[in-house]
Amino acid sequence: MTLEVLLSAMFLKDYRYIDTLNIKTDCVVINQCDQEKHETFIDSGRNIRFISTQERGLSKSRNMALKFSTADICLICDDDVEYVEGYSEIVKNTFLTNIHYDIIIFHVKKSKNDCPLYFQQKELSFFSILKARSVEIAFKRKSVNEISFNEMFGAGAQYSSGEENLFLFKCLQKGLKALYCPIQIASLRDGPSTWFTGFNAKYFHDKGAFFYELLPKFSFFLILRFALFKHHLYKKEISFFHALKTMLEGRAAYIKETKTG
User: Fold this and answer.
1) For the chain, which end, N or C, has fewer CB atoms within 10 Å of the first or last residue's CB respectively?
2) DSSP states of 169-221
3) pLDDT in tens, 79-123
4) 124-143 residue pLDDT tens
């Protein structure tokens, strides 16, 4: 069983940046920058494909990495992840002992006191899988062969987040099975978010579009539920009715755009 890390990054000087992330396995690096260049390096037993591209958008980067990957197992990575020693064996052994699962979500520690979502292995449903962060996702490449990231969503795209949730949701809709494993494989470095700048109008507008793309028939209910259950998080920045109104406007704008586009 082979494993590749799929790293999305911007303006890297060269492939050696992967050493700062403790990547010890084969790797596909998508480096969004100002040139078009495809390079392959063999370094410390690692096969490294370093793809420089002028394309922009995180989902485009993820899809390009999938295109160039050849491994059995893919592990999604960003440039603020630091892997633990032995992460490759953890991931491969978990797949080998859970052969019926196509996707496994591992624990990536966000802060000192961050705990796993669950403290034991658990099969994930359509809604529990929405709690996963992109860098926690590992999957069998052949299982997702006909599934891609929605390029309208994600950092650098029109709608600033939610691409990993849409990808995972689509995987389950296609009949794939997902498992949560509480073993830590990496930590996140401290730093500003690439997309979250506060509970502002842009945030709620994009949420409205996201909920429609996720479940069109139930999007109004999902928007209302989000406005109610997350009110304690955003109430100091925006009112309940303004948040609800802005999400509905985002939903309407997305419907119009996708139907006319």
Assistant:
1) C
2) HHHHHTT--EEEEEEEEEEEPP---SS---SSHHHHHHHHHHHHHH-GGGHHH
3) 999 999 999 999 999 999 999 999 999 999 988 778 888 999 999
4) 999 999 999 999 999 999 99
